[in-house]
Recover the amino acids of this structure.
């Protein structure tokens, strides 16, 4: 079979550029898929490992993210702040972030979890303002990175969007105690009964749709090829001819 192909210049240039772009998008999603799977595995490994139980060990700069902890301390409820734009099962609300004074008198920020708009005011949820010594179970988290379209934190006006411990500590200005600002802790809820604030359940909640995205981009690339060659075939620029056999 002989193939006669006379590609059109500008449609070919355009198709090559778009095809390369679609393939690069698909390949990037495949790389993100491997990264996300490794992140989930790291979360499971660290969060299920033997927890840190001594407050002084939290001073180490080499602590892995997602490492589990069980420490004693006291919440400083008067200094809690609220991360806006958080949802729980489709309901809008906030994450309550509260300084936690450990037994060694150092402070670390605790993301205690989600509350609805109606319970943002601590006076309406006095049951959640735990007093005295608390045994806290949690997971180490690195400071959040501000997204491209996420506004800057504005503590002066009470608008917080990203958990960046140094910014939060600078705002609440508790100068009497040393502070840990290279990470914060997600509080893990204990038991099946939900109480406010609703902490994490200790299971990974990372969205992992990169495989479907990759398939979509690669599918679009194949569709472009089909349209490109179909167009040339219909215009007589792509012809398949059977070769004649002698005898």
């Amino acid at each position: 079979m002989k193939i006669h192909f006379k590609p059109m210049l500008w449609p070919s240039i355009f198709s090559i550029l778009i095809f390369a772009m679609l393939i690069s998008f698909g390949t990037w999603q495949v790389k993100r898929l491997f990264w996300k799977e490794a992140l989930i595995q790291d979360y499971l490994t660290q969060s299920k490992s033997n927890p840190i139980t001594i407050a002084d060990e939290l001073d180490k700069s080499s602590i892995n993210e997602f490492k589990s902890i069980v420490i004693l301390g006291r919440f400083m409820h008067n200094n809690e702040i609220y991360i806006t734009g958080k949802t729980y099962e489709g309901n809008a609300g906030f994450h309550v972030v509260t300084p936690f004074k450990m037994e060694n008198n150092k402070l670390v920020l605790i993301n205690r979890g989600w509350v609805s708009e109606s319970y943002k005011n601590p006076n309406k949820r006095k049951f959640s303002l735990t007093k005295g010594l608390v045994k806290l179970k949690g997971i180490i988290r690195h400071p959040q990175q501000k997204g491209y379209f996420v506004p800057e934190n504005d503590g002066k006006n009470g608008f917080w969007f990203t958990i960046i411990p140094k910014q939060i500590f600078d705002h609440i200005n508790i100068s009497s105690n040393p502070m840990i600002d290279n990470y914060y802790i997600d509080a893990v809820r204990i038991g099946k009964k939900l109480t406010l604030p609703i902490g994490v359940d200790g299971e990974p909640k990372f969205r992992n749709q990169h495989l479907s995205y990759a398939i979509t981009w690669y599918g679009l690339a194949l569709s472009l090829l089909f349209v490109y060659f179909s167009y040339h075939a219909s215009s007589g620029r792509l012809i398949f001819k059977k070769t004649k056999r002698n005898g």
